[in-house]
Amino acid sequence: GDARVRGQTGVISERRGSYPFIDFRLLNNTTLSGEIGTKKKVKRLLSFQRYFHASRLLRGIVPQTSLYLLDEDYLGQARHMLSKVGMWDFDIFLFDRLTNGNSLVTLLCHLFNVHGLIHHFQLDMVTLHRFLVMVQEDYHSQNPYHNAVHAADVTQAMHCYLREPKLASFLTPSDIMLGLLAAAAHDVDHPGVNQPFLIKTKHHLASLYQNVSVLENHHWRSTIGMLRESRLLAHLPKEVTHDIEQQLGSLILATDINRQNEFLIRLKSHLDNQDLRLEDAQDRHFMLQIALKCADICNPCRLWDLSKQWSERVCEEFYRQGDLEQKFELEISPLCNQQKDTIPSIQIGFMTYIVEPLFERWAQFTGDTPLSENMLNHLRRNKAKWRSLLHKQHSSSRSNDHSGQVTGSQEQTLNEDETP
Fold first, then answer.
1. Would you call 146 a catalytic residue per the annotation?
2. What PANTHER family does this protein's entry cite (predicted)?
């Protein structure tokens, strides 16, 4: 039978020759109201997924309009926080509470104003707000990690990086707008599972993008669909909007973790040869890609209390995927087995092999600025805390196990962690 796909991440009903009975409503509890007519005019046709996405109103979801109905005290506190939006200790969780879950919209409206983008591009404020609401609502609040608060956190980090002297003096308004838009939309409509999961369950997005940067391609295409639907940039020349769409894609696709080494090798070569020419648009774009990659994985470089919350959230999302895989008798993906993959061991590995190499090169690029030194200091302190927690876990397990042996996965994590 043919598969029928609808809703945000898709609902795959029984299909012969594919993995049966994988119901993605387990990932997203949104109630669907009524059938979506196939002849319904849908403006967001950029990806197969968009065809079935249709209007949130059709699915019985009333758009949130609570942003301007907040208590004045909360609005006052949120405004005060925005005055310090360039500080690295910015608490995005508190800001999201103060804005009643509208952190992404509120933050972007403020940053577009601060950077003079509204005036420069002659943007309509109502249209900008409508577009940002679309982006914010296309994130899944049910995801512990890949939600609109993560997008707001990445955007705030991107704002900090765009102000680094080495970069800031060369950036054009177009560069800044691209950087902020890419940060805000880089994970839009994330289903809460990773690419290997989509591939092995034969999800339609994996087929659409031929198993290559599946999620990142979807985030990009979804963003373009919303840009066109909102008509935010409709007043600009077509060649300009086309260029913006392509560069957004290049930035969002750079966040694919599978391309980490590709970007690190290229960055190392530029730094070693001292041949970065930020006067050139191509080199500036490359450094915007690096900045977005840093912003996307900067959680371990935050204050411990914030970093720990993000670590727990991302692992909770991993474990949910593992539970799904176990439920449908699939092989449990790496890092997704709650019985074997502990939060400290996951975080130590992530910091050692992914975060440290990137941020050490970023610090080399920026020239050891106060922000870069601050981030690396937090990273080292946080890693030491996770080591301490891992040690306590091992001590506890040994005291409960007279054989004094740790599990194979923990032993491997410890051995790998000693590798420089």
1. yes
2. CYCLIC NUCLEOTIDE PHOSPHODIESTERASE
Confirm or deny that 146 is annotated as ligand binding.
yes
Instruction: Please tell me which residue in 53, 140, 146, 159 is annotated as part of the active site.
Output: 146
Please provide the average confidence, as pLDDT, over all residues in the chain: 84
Find out whether 168 is annotated in a ligand binding site: no
Q: What pLDDT, in 10s, does the model give residues 14-66?
A: 232 344 334 444 444 433 333 343 333 333 334 334 333 433 333 334 344 44
Q: Is 355 annotated as a binding residue?
A: no
Could you give all domains of the chain from N- to C-terminal order, each with its CATH number?
74-395 (1.10.1300.10)
The 3-class SS string of the chain reads CCCCCCCCCCCCCCCCCCCCCCCHHHCCCCCCCCCCCCCCCCCCCCCHHHHHHCCCHHHCCCCCCHHHHCCHHHHHHHHHHHCCCCCCCCCHHHHHHHCCCCHHHHHHHHHHHHCCHHHHCCCCHHHHHHHHHHHHHCCCCCCCCCCHHHHHHHHHHHHHHHCCHHHHCCCCHHHHHHHHHHHHHCCCCCCCCCHHHHHHCCCHHHHHCCCCCHHHHHHHHHHHHHHHHHCCCCCCCHHHHHHHHHHHHHHHHCCCHHHHHHHHHHHHHHHHHCCCCCCCHHHHHHHHHHHHHHHHCCHHHCCHHHHHHHHHHHHHHHHHHHHHHHHCCCCCCCCCCCCCCCHHHHHHHHHHHHHHHHHHHHHHHHCCCHHHHHHHHHHHHHHHHHHHHHHHHHHHHHHCCCCCCCCHHHHHHHHHHCCC
